TrEMBL record:
<dbReference type="InterPro" id="IPR052188">
    <property type="entry name" value="Ni-pincer_cofactor_biosynth"/>
</dbReference>
<dbReference type="InterPro" id="IPR005232">
    <property type="entry name" value="LarE"/>
</dbReference>
<dbReference type="InterPro" id="IPR014729">
    <property type="entry name" value="Rossmann-like_a/b/a_fold"/>
</dbReference>
<dbReference type="GO" id="GO:0016740">
    <property type="term" value="F:transferase activity"/>
</dbReference>
<keyword id="KW-0808">Transferase</keyword>
<protein>
    <submittedName>
        <fullName>ATP-dependent sacrificial sulfur transferase LarE</fullName>
    </submittedName>
</protein>
């Protein structure tokens, strides 16, 4: 079946011509697919690098390790320090640019350290229509988007991932924990830890598509606990979440939230931007 997929064959050919690659790998379907394809073609000359910081969900880090092991690819966890950047912490609309700039600074350094030729990301054609400041960071760092070069849209990625036997071919979209905090509200280690703790418990309760949106009770400059957790789950999981509301509230309290709420509209990307625009913008946040 692989040989009948023209997108996949173009990707294999391009990767072969590259010689050796570092894949910026988060464990999501896009970057996992790029890593699997690169490993298939280049073997040990393809290395996946995961940048580890407080904004990476703990369950995503463990999933990335497990998926790379299943692929058989070399996988390196590298500490990332975007949280130390004032421009990142202040959480303006260009936050993603500063995050990706740190990621690509690290990957460019590791590319040299590991004697590799190229740095790749998992951007596909559907991403290009979004407002994604990180794309500018990739351009600045000369990172290659091989899925774009080969004409992959998201549906092509999922089909290709299934052909390669990746168990994450239908994995829901994910995003960094900082995307759960409204623009203009400072990103702190404590707030990210609150979100991470509650999302991990929600996953353990069996909920698959989850976002914990962090909202301040008072001033956004107040770094003390006491925030509101606005939980989004897939519309198909709303009933299951409601039936487990006592367990969810208890988990939220353990994570340090003063109030725990369930958003009845369900999960949608960019919902933090509704307060800015009056509508949900998929293009900005995850």
């Amino acid at each position: 079946m692989e040989e009948q997929d023209p997108h996949l064959q173009r990707l294999f050919s391009l990767l072969s011509d590259m010689g050796s690659v570092l894949v910026c790998y988060s464990g999501g379907v896009d970057s996992a697919f790029v890593l699997a394809a690169a490993h298939r073609v280049l073997g040990p000359r393809a290395i996946g690098m995961t940048a580890v910081s407080p904004s990476l969900p703990s369950f995503e880090r463990e999933a990335a390790i497990d998926i790379a092991r299943q692929i058989g690819a070399r996988h390196e966890l590298v500490p990332s320090s975007e949280i130390e950047d004032d421009n990142y912490r202040k959480n303006d609309v260009d936050r993603c640019f500063h995050c990706k700039s740190e990621l690509y600074r690290l990957s460019s350094k590791k590319k040299v350290d590991w004697s590799l030729d190229w740095v790749l990301n998992g951007t596909n054609l559907d991403d290009l229509g979004d407002y994604r400041p990180g794309l500018e960071a990739a351009k600045n760092a000369q990172v290659r988007s091989v899925l774009v070069e080969c004409g992959f849209r998201k549906e092509d990625v999922r089909r290709g991932a299934a052909l390669l036997g990746l168990p994450v071919w239908n994995k829901p979209a994910s995003a960094c924990l900082s995307s759960r905090i409204p623009y203009g509200t400072e990103v702190t280690r404590e707030r990210l830890a609150q979100i991470d703790a509650l999302e991990a418990e929600l996953h353990h309760l069996g909920l698959r598509q989850v976002r914990v949106r962090w909202h301040a009770l008072g001033s956004t400059k107040d770094t003390t606990p006491g925030a509101i957790a606005r939980i989004e789950v897939a519309a198909t999981e709303l009933l299951a979440a409601f039936e487990q509301r006592d367990a969810i509230v208890d988990a939220g309290k353990r994570a340090g939230f003063r109030y725990v709420t369930l958003d009845l509209q369900g999960y949608r990307t960019g919902s933090h931007n509704e307060v800015l625009t009056g509508r949900s913008l998929r293009v900005v946040n995850g």
